[in-house]
Amino acid sequence: MIRGRVIGRIWSTKRTDSLPQGALLEVEIDGGSRVIAFDPLGCGDGEEVLITQGSVAAGQFEGIKAPIDALIIGSIDEHT
Amino acid sequence: MIRGRVIGRIWSTKRTDSLPQGALLEVEIDGGSRVIAFDPLGCGDGEEVLITQGSVAAGQFEGIKAPIDALIIGSIDEHT
Amino acid sequence: MIRGRVIGRIWSTKRTDSLPQGALLEVEIDGGSRVIAFDPLGCGDGEEVLITQGSVAAGQFEGIKAPIDALIIGSIDEHT
Amino acid sequence: MIRGRVIGRIWSTKRTDSLPQGALLEVEIDGGSRVIAFDPLGCGDGEEVLITQGSVAAGQFEGIKAPIDALIIGSIDEHT
Amino acid sequence: MIRGRVIGRIWSTKRTDSLPQGALLEVEIDGGSRVIAFDPLGCGDGEEVLITQGSVAAGQFEGIKAPIDALIIGSIDEHT
């Protein structure tokens, strides 16, 4: 997984039908690259999150073939 | 997912039979790298788009094994 | 696989239910990038580890669809 | 997908049995990185090609588990 | 696939049970990054090899779910 900080939200009206309803957050990864991740947890700006990627992310959606290759799976409490 | 801006279109006459008919757009990602993505939404030059990658992209094609590892799944309205 | 050195542990209270109990370690890869990997072996700070990534990592969890895309599969003894 | 230019061919006599017969071409991607891709189309040196990667590439081989994670799926005509 | 040169071998005594017996070689890729790959071919130091990655690598192990995301599939004869 990778960790990063939420820096915003993406809206898309013109979208494929298969895209699940829910927040698409932009997350800045250490080093400066950015990923757009689906957020099932209700994370907010500035929150530090844990992201899983690839088919592993899509596999978390039950009963549908979601076109999601990046998913927030946790908010990070602290880091030692 | 990653976001980027459409900068052109690719044509390929000599191609594998399994490649679905449809537009193949070249998209510039933040940072300067480029990806060729299949576009089911009719996006145009300069449009900002959301792309899913890997087997997740191919999995969106029903009933065929499409050799597509990058798919446009939305056009971005705005970004906060 | 990639190799790296354990530099810390991540705690996440607000998390998806599908995330398995167990340690999530932060690992620094040669070159400076960082990965968060699930650790089934009880590795500690400073330990050098071997990590497998992607759907291969998730596939190691029997009977569940774990959202794990990075898994520690060994601690490195020595390197010639 | 990614685009690149064919710069040579790889020969491998000592190889796994599962590797399909056919050309393995070395392709230079924009930015300078290189990928070795299986070529079912008969592309030549200097030709610009479109490559799909990962399990999507392997999935194009019917009836066998080919160890191919990069496949040429088209030759590029032109680029606007 | 990617090509690289074998620069050493990894030993791991503390390892997951699912890790197959066999050599884990460290391979330096052009550009300087390093990958640890499973070697079914008996390659040695300095040998130039071809590596497949991701779930395609794991899929080459019959009847087991090997946690292998990088596999040597050939030794390179020459390169034109």
What does it look like?
Five copies of one chain form a homopentamer. With 80 residues, chain A is mainly beta. Chain A has a single domain, classed as OB fold (Dihydrolipoamide Acetyltransferase, E2P) (Beta Barrel). Chain A contains one helix and six strands; from the N terminus they run E-E-E-E-H-E-E. The first copy, chain A, has a five-stranded antiparallel sheet. The longest helix of chain A has 4 residues. Chains in contact: A-B, A-C, B-D, C-E, D-E. At the A-B interface, strand 1, strand 3 and helix 1 of A face strand 4, helix 1, strand 5 and strand 6 of B.
The main sheet of chain A comes to: 5 strands, antiparallel
Question: Can you tell me the overall shape of chain A?
Answer: globular
Q: What is the total number of structural domains of chain A?
A: 1
Largest interface: A-B, 28 and 25 residues
Top-tier CATH class of chain A = Mainly Beta
Percent helix of chain A, as a range, is: under 10%
DSSP strand (E) fraction of chain A? over 45%
CATH topology of chain A: the name is: OB fold (Dihydrolipoamide Acetyltransferase, E2P)
Total of helices of chain A: 1
Q: Give the uncertain stretches of chain A in residue-range form.
A: none
Q: What is the architecture of chain A at the second tier of CATH?
A: Beta Barrel
Integer-rounded radius of gyration of chain A: 12 Å
Mean pLDDT of chain A: 95
CATH superfamily of chain A: EutN/Ccml
Number of strands of chain A: 6
How far apart the termini of chain A lie comes to: 17 Å
H/E series of chain A? EEEEHEE
How are the strands ordered across the major sheet of chain A? 3-2-1-4-5
* Structural class designation of chain A: mainly beta
Oligomer: homopentamer
